Amino acid sequence: MNIKIREYRKTDADAVMKIWNQVVEGGVAFPQEDPLTEYNADAFFRQQTYTGVAEDTVSGDIVGMYILHPNNVGRCGHICNASYAVRKDVRGEHIGERLVNDCLFMAREKGFRILQFNAVVASNIHAVHLYERLGFTRIGTVPGGFHMPDGTYEDIILFYHAV
């Protein structure tokens, strides 16, 4: 697969929505409980500071995506937050790593100084290992901070990285 990370376009809405919804419906990574629809997906992706997509330049398929947006306002407005999703059938091919690296670059381009993750689910070991490998600093753990689909609560880990 030959992957290029590029800016989201309106024509990407359906493919990007499906990838996003795979994670939402899985219920073990994103805090959202309701999937996006064809009526609100494009507006959601366009309202972000930046939405990036991973495109296979050979097939033209969208295989991953990320959103980048402020984590807070005012005196903390220099801190951003992001979410990443890779299509289920191509996970494990380092697309997530490409998305995170592009996001760090875009965060700097957009004037942010810090990328902070507020809620990395502790059992999401692939994400935890990726962020640690890329030099993110573990800030701490919130015990029971994530409500799992089975009704249990799992710890979340906070990370940051200077951009």
UniProtKB/TrEMBL annotation:
Keyword Transferase: yes
PANTHER family to which the protein is assigned, alphabetical: ACETYLTRANSFERASE, GNAT FAMILY, N-ACETYLTRANSFERASE ACA1
The protein's name in its UniProt record: GNAT family N-acetyltransferase
GO terms of molecular function: acyltransferase activity, transferring groups other than amino-acyl groups
Keywords: Transferase
SUPFAM superfamilies: Acyl-CoA N-acyltransferases (Nat) (SSF55729)
Organism domain of life: Bacteria
Native source species: Bilifractor porci
Record's keyword annotation contains Transferase: yes
Start and end residues of each N-acetyltransferase domain: 3-160
